[in-house]
Amino acid sequence: MNNTHQKKVFKTIICITFILLIIISLIYIIQYFHSMNNIVKEGKLLNNIINDTNIVAEEPNNIVNDDEKIQKTERMLKLEELQQDNSDIVAWIEIEKTNINYPVLQCSNNDYYMNHNYKKEYSVGGSIFLDKDYDWNIPSDNLLIYGHNLKNGTMFQNLLKYQNKSFFESHPTIRFTTNKEDSIYEIIAVFKSKIYYKTDTNVFRYYYFINAKNENEYNDFVNNAKKASLYDTGKTAQYGDSLMTLSTCAYHTKDGRFAVVAKKVD
Question: Does domain 86-265 bear CATH number 2.40.260.10?
Fold first, then answer.
């Protein structure tokens, strides 16, 4: 085989490889946008489920629980319907007039629902999920809830809008529904953060706080959240208040995070 022929073969291989790479890239891009489109459709479907007033049994016939009778709202009953298909669904979260309107999942690890939807199907957008260490039997002090920051505006992407105080002023509360209660949480702090190295000292690792060992640890969390807040919300929490922390990725720094902390309103 002469040099000229070898060069032709080499160029042909290079061209074929380049074309294959383009095809693979196009397939990946198409699949990605198809997945994003499915996430949007799924979100709209879930929104319809939770807001459809026609699929609920009569409320007077649905007064139940183990130790006390509870008048169940329509939303609580719809949540129970979803739980029949997946017992990992533990709640529903909504921030009115935003895209945040989803079931909340919880399982034995914090990895599964990063890339699975509420039907346990693979999904690049994952689900909104509660930290595995939250104990409903106590219950724990802080509902630590995670969600992806997706460019198409779904999951917890809208949390980033709380960087503007005006957005907070028009969206000051979070609705959180379980099969035992339909609750409102008022936001007390919003802040930028990051995942810190083990060697970092004197930093606020908000993502470790679920159960306070004592009153001091609880107060430290609240004080640090208020100190880190981008602005004064005019609200705070006292020891004994149930807390909620919503956490998502942010890109202001490497391993950035954005968090919203709220307290339950009696």
Answer: yes
